[in-house]
Specification:
Layout: H1 6-29, H2 31-36, E1 38-41, E2 44-46, H3 54-57, H4 64-78
Antiparallel strand pairs: 1-2
């Protein structure tokens, strides 16, 4: 039986997802060290910074269900 074209893509997506989650967990575990920065190469350091800007903080006080309801309403209006 011939292998589906999507299988290699699905495997790659799963591996990328697992790698992403593992590196995030590692960064959170090493947060105190990374907040000060680790010099890797001259001019290149690893530093942990939390993004609290507009994309993540704009609707921080709004319940998730209200955002979901608003998004559904906008999608229905556009459709």
């Amino acid at each position: 039986m011939k292998e589906s074209v999507l299988r290699p893509g699905a495997r790659a997506a799963l591996l990328a997802f697992l790698f992403d989650q593992a590196t995030k967990a590692l960064a959170i575990t090493a947060a105190p060290l990374l907040s000060e920065g680790i010099d890797v190469l001259p001019g290149f350091s690893l530093v942990l910074v939390r993004n609290t800007g507009i994309s993540f903080g704009m609707f921080g006080a709004v319940p998730w269900w209200l955002l979901a309801l608003g998004g559904t309403g906008i999608s229905a209006g556009l459709g």
